[in-house]
Please model this.
Amino acid sequence: MNYILQSMEYDLINEDYLEAIHKIKAQKETVLSISPIIVTNNETFDFILNLEIKSLLQDGKEIKTCISISENAVYNHPVAAYRITKLLKYIYNFYQHVELFIAEKEDTSLEVKFIIPHYLELSSSFEEELNTFDDYSITIIKNDETMIIQYIDSLSSYH
Model:
């Protein structure tokens, strides 16, 4: 990416506008050809989650997503997406398949759930380690077949 930007800068300095435009169009086509997994119209939020999820998919991980949030500038604060991806990557250290559900709450917060179907009982260190994620207030719900790891992320501090 740096090379491409430097090349475009060189073209612009040398007033080779047609070549610069050609390179810009080629890059736009490349970006558009990569289908996004998450589309909420919150550009930063979508970019960070898509980047991390695509990386995990390339590593052979499986994910299903269901995200229901409105277009809102508060979601574009990178911390909201980074918190989700940090916990997602930790969970993938133990499980290959995760279902991610994100819903908007009325009080400008996100309800984030990581559902692990057909989970295997791990040592208590997995759950103990989850408790080290400061400021998450994680709740774990388990039955015979499914484990749900959830937290509510108050976005009011991200303004």
